[in-house]
Amino acid sequence: xxxxxxxxxxxxxxxxxxxxxxxxxxxxxxxxxxxxxxxxxxxxxxxxxxxxxxxxxxxxxxxxxxxxxxxxxxxxxxxxxxxxxxxxxxxxxxxxxxxxxxxxxxxxxxxxxxxxxxxxxxxxxxxxxxxxxxxxxxxxxxxxxxxxxxxxxxxxxxxxxxxxxxxxxxxxxxxxxxxxxxxxxxxxxxxxxxxxxxxxxxxxx
Length: 205
Hints:
Layout: H1 5-13, H2 21-32, H3 35-52, E1 54-55, E2 62-63, H4 69-72, E3 77-84, H5 87-96, E4 101-105, H6 123-131, E5 137-140, H7 146-162, E6 167-170, H8 186-194, E7 197-198
Parallel strand pairs: 3-4, 3-5, 5-6
Antiparallel strand pairs: 1-2, 6-7
Helix pairs in contact: 1-2, 5-8, 6-7
């Protein structure tokens, strides 16, 4: 039960991924001991971010600009789009600095149980981006989970109809079955991106 400002702060931090009540209490205590060097700057940075962060209307990335820095970068390869489930996966691939194309962030995976449809994941927008004739390859960099692979198959079928000449590929070596991209190390992701493989029966030669 929230009784004061400190308890309120602890309860909010405890909702973050990887933090429970005990970790949140330790974090709050650390902040309170450093109000000028850490707590107030953090509060200002979070307030600014809350006001300025936008969802990129092109790819679904989170940034302080729209289009995002990746979509606006003329040095990126516009002929290749990498489809990821979440912004965390995009960040993971960017850490490895291997992929130099563009992205499409789904924001999740298909789920009949949760009512998540292809439209909720922006698949019509993805089909439109691929069908404009500039894209030569789409990399389906989805997690090796049941939901991730089901989503990948649906995307492959849709893109095969929208742009049959576009090559569809998927991450290969190093991605374990059931693995999520955000939890893999940079070397594994780099190897998987370089060794991507065509998806049989869905576009390409």
